[in-house]
Design goal:
This protein has eleven helices and 29 strands. The protein is of the alpha/beta class and about 400 residues long. Among the domains are: about 150 residues, FAD/NAD(P)-binding domain, CATH 3.50.50.100; about 120 residues, FAD/NAD(P)-binding domain, CATH 3.50.50.60. α1 runs parallel beside α10. It binds flavin-adenine dinucleotide and nicotinamide-adenine-dinucleotide (NAD).
């Protein structure tokens, strides 16, 4: 092989960390590295709920790829991946094609919609900068409309969140801060607005520490968030939703439905013909796709089983970053002619979820529970640590979150 061609698809957590690590680990003449992404920026997916609520501007969440990737060293192709042809070692893009010796697939997640009627047409999802910006503008527009309508259009002021997993809870927390601002701005009494979280399980954040869940629910309820637990979202119409609890259906007016009830791997991966579960490929220990020693899969497109409970690890940024570090290391080994690759072992450092300004819950350091402002500070430390890892002190100072009590 001449100088090997490494192609990395997607500039999310997985793709970016793989790229910045590789540019440090490999000498200029050792490999050609190409990063393909839809946009010329990377975004912090973990902040998108703030952009969607309008509590944080999306420019804070976006990071220009050229600010952290040396474009003399890595070729950035701004294009959309359409399909993969592993047998031909080829990637088809909207505007061309690329060949590779080694491929890293980091194309991230899509909303899992479970075939719910009307969802695709009438609900919004928090997936990327564009979808988050649309949610912010849509809610604001509906608030602006309210006092200009002849009838009392309660649907314009009811915000429904499908799913009280981490995304749903974090978004509800941001709305708890944003709605009073919108009410002031558009002359709407706060008590007219409903934030309704619909969750199929009997509890919010199913499987998470009960004490922390109780804290989160009490706090969010104090901010005006309603919970409909044990309730399935069954259908989304243009101006209402249908939910079902104990076989009883109810229609709730809403023109602001945000679906946050689960994710799956990017459908390009499934369409490639890899065996998948919810669009995620069960990768080997060294993070390669089964039967394809030249393809690594990182982040939300990869599925790794937790041997302790025989269940998949949840798709998180924390795991995507760690997978990327191992992938970069393994690519270096292959480029240097080695064959003994490192096995991926996640080192879970905990989970912290924000509940809005200055509030959060979390479990860290192998079981220590954090509530309120302490958890919120921990969340900022986690976010800032990522920025430091990705782009050093310069990026941290530019994009970091430093105010302990606010954003
Ligand atoms: P992504 O971050 O989704 O990035 C994928 C990249 O691929 C994007 O840049 C996208 O533009 C690009 N792309 C996609 N399709 C194409 C295409 N066809 N062609 C070209 N480019 C393409 N996890 C945590 O660990 N902690 C948290 O606090 C946390 N908070 C979250 C909050 C929210 C609101 C959400 C939605 C998720 C959160 N997660 C969190 C989960 C975490 O964000 C994901 O697990 C993580 O983003 C996965 O990283 P990734 O690299 O696989 O993909
Ligand atoms: P999730 O799968 O974790 O939660 C989805 C929730 O929606 C579940 O509670 C489920 O019971 C509910 N649900 C599913 N179908 C429903 C229906 N028809 N009606 C009502 N409720 C329904 O999904 P998520 O919250 O989007 O999280 C995705 C991934 O991102 C997870 O791995 C999560 O851990 C991670 N994440 C982490 C953080 C954090 O660490 N702070 C924040 C956000 C997301």
């Amino acid at each position: 092989m001449n100088r090997p061609k490494i192609v990395i698809l997607g500039a999310g957590y997985g793709g970016m960390i793989t790229t910045v690590k590789l540019q440090k680990m490999l000498g200029r003449n050792e490999a050609d590295i190409t990063l393909v992404n839809k946009h010329n920026y990377h975004y912090q997916t973990t902040w998108l709920h703030e952009n969607a609520a309008g509590t944080l501007h999306h420019d804070h969440t976006r990071i220009k790829i050229s600010d952290v990737v040396d474009l003399n060293r890595v070729e950035l192709v701004q294009d959309t991946v359409v399909s993969l042809q592993p047998d031909e070692k080829k990637v088809t893009l909207e505007n061309g094609e690329l060949t590779y010796d080694y491929l890293v697939v980091g194309l991230g997640f899509e909303a899992a919609t479970f075939g719910i009627q009307g969802l695709l047409e009438n609900a919004f999802t928090i997936n990327n900068i564009n979808s988050a910006r649309l949610i912010r503008d849509h809610i604001e527009y509906n608030f602006a409309r309210y006092n200009n309508e002849k009838e009392d259009r309660q649907d314009l002021l009811n915000i429904v969140i499908g799913g009280a997993g981490f995304t749903g809870i974090e978004f509800a927390g941001e709305l708890g801060n944003r709605v009073p601002e919108l009410c002031k701005e558009y002359d709407i009494p706060r008590e007219k607005v409903r934030i309704i979280t619909v969750e199929a399980s009997p509890t919010a954040l199913p499987g998470f520490d009960e004490e922390l869940v109780e804290y989160a629910m009490n706090y969010l309820e104090s901010q005006g968030v309603e919970f409909k637990l044990g309730t399935m979202l069954k259908q989304v119409n243009e101006n209402s939703i249908i939910v079902e609890k104990d076989e009883q259906q109810e229609e709730i007016p809403s023109s602001n439905v945000i679906w946050a009830a689960g994710v799956r791997g990017n459908s390009i991966v499934e369409e490639t013909g890899f065996e998948t579960a919810r669009g995620r490929v069960k990768v080997s220990e060294d993070l390669r796709a089964p039967g394809h020693d030249d393809i690594f899969i990182v982040g939300d497109c990869a599925l790794i089983m937790d041997k302790e409970n025989d269940r998949p690890y949840p798709p998180t940024a924390q795991i995507a970053i760690q997978e990327a570090e191992v992938t970069a290391h393994n690519l270096k080994t292959l480029v240097h002619g080695g064959s003994k690759l490192e096995a991926f072992e996640p080192e879970l450092q905990g989970t912290v979820a924000s509940l809005g300004e200055g509030q959060a819950i979390g479990v860290v350091f192998g079981g220590k529970k954090l509530f309120g402002w302490k958890a919120s500070v921990m969340k900022k430390i986690i976010d800032n640590r990522y920025l430091l890892k990705l782009g050093g002190v310069g990026l941290l100072l530019k994009k970091g979150k430093f105010n302990i009590f606010t954003k």
